[in-house]
């Protein structure tokens, strides 16, 4: 592992256009469970998958009631960025981070200090709420206050439509400009870092083969195997909070590399 890490660190240090693709695994050390890891929400309770599926959400008031309870109690509201998030901030500060494509909805990359315009949230954000009918958007906390005050399934105040967090649920279409931007960035990368993602959610998982076929190196950081380990130039197995700071150590700024 130490040799592999040293080689991968050298690749990071040499790169000018790093694209990080992050998944739920980067936030588990901040207390937010992933879906498919050993302690994942779906691993422990397969029925929880329904709450993230638009087809159940739109037709079943009980699913919406449970989803709102889960949003009120979500650990993300108290979560703080961890060493993994901070490592990606240093990579941006060193001028090497071309884009940070995240499947996460928790906003921890921005809270850690990555610039919002560099973060591409392909699955939306839990910090906003959207009306499924008139597309009104507003801050999540104001709607959570209505739930705390006793509304089990708060409706849109403008049109009475169904409200949902501004995230992309399973069965829902991605925002074309956002996923296009993410995949374009992957094709422009000289190094793609896939961090804490099971690489099983498409189309964003295509970022890995796209980057690879455009000539980028690929490094996967994950505690468990992924279906794309065979494509990667290096697979670093272990905890993100330990590996990522070591991987970016000595990169960019510290070596006097300026932004490309
Ligand atoms: P996933 O749950 O499918 O996979 C997470 C991966 O990270 C697993 O392979 C797991 O082994 C690994 N992992 C977990 N903790 C780790 C750690 N500390 N160190 C190293 N590896 C670790 O997640 P995904 O691929 O992102 O897909 C799930 C979908 O669910 C995404 O669309 C995402 O938006 C959403 N989601 C987001 C959050 C969040 O915003 N924090 C949380 C749960 C789910």
What are its keywords?
6-stranded parallel sheet; 260 residues; SIR2/SIRT2 'Small Domain'; 17% strand; binds nicotinamide-adenine-dinucleotide; disordered C terminus; 2 domains; 9 strands; 3-stranded antiparallel sheet; alpha/beta; Rossmann fold
Describe the protein's architecture and organization:
This protein has two domains: 1-32 and 80-123 and 174-260, TPP-binding domain (Rossmann fold), CATH 3.40.50; 35-78 and 124-167, SIR2/SIRT2 'Small Domain'. It has helices at 2-14, 41-44, 54-57, 61-72, 83-93, 108-112, 140-148, 176-188, 207-213, 240-248; strands at 18-22, 97-102, 119-121, 124-131, 137-139, 163-167, 191-195, 217-222, 234-237. It has 260 residues and is of the alpha/beta class. It is built from ten helices and nine strands. The strands form two sheets. Strands 3-2-1-7-8-9 form a six-stranded parallel sheet, sandwiched between helices. The chain has a three-stranded antiparallel sheet with strand order 5-4-6. Helix 1 crosses helix 10 (240-248). Helices cover 33% and strands 17% of the residues. The longest helix is centred in the first third of the chain and has 13 residues, at 2-14. It binds nicotinamide-adenine-dinucleotide. Nicotinamide-adenine-dinucleotide binds next to loops.
């Amino acid at each position: 592992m130490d040799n592999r890490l040293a080689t991968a660190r050298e690749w990071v240090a040499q790169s000018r256009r790093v694209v990080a693709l992050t998944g739920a695994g980067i936030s588990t050390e901040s207390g937010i469970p992933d879906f498919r890891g050993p302690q994942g929400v779906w691993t422990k309770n397969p029925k929880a998958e329904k709450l993230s599926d638009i087809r159940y959400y739109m037709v079943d008031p009980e699913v919406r009631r449970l989803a709102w309870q889960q949003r009120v109690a979500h650990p993300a509201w108290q979560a703080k960025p961890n060493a993994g998030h901070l490592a990606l901030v240093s990579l941006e500060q060193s001028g090497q981070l071309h884009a940070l494509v995240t499947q996460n909805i928790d906003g921890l990359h921005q809270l850690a200090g990555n610039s919002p315009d560099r973060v591409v949230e392909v699955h939306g954000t839990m910090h906003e709420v959207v009306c499924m009918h008139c597309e009104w958007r507003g801050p999540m906390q104001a709607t959570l206050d209505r739930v705390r005050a006793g509304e089990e399934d708060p409706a849109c105040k403008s049109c009475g439509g169904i409200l949902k967090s501004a995230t992309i649920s399973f069965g829902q279409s991605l925002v074309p400009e956002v996923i296009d931007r993410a995949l374009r960035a992957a094709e422009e990368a000289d190094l793609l870092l896939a961090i804490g993602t099971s690489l099983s959610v498409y189309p964003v998982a295509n970022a890995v083969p796209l980057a690879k076929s455009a000539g980028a190196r690929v490094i996967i950081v994950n505690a468990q195997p992924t279906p794309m380990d065979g494509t990667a130039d290096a697979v670093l197995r272990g905890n993100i909070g330990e590996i990522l700071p070591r991987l970016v150590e000595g990169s960019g700024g510290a070596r006097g590399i300026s932004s490309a």
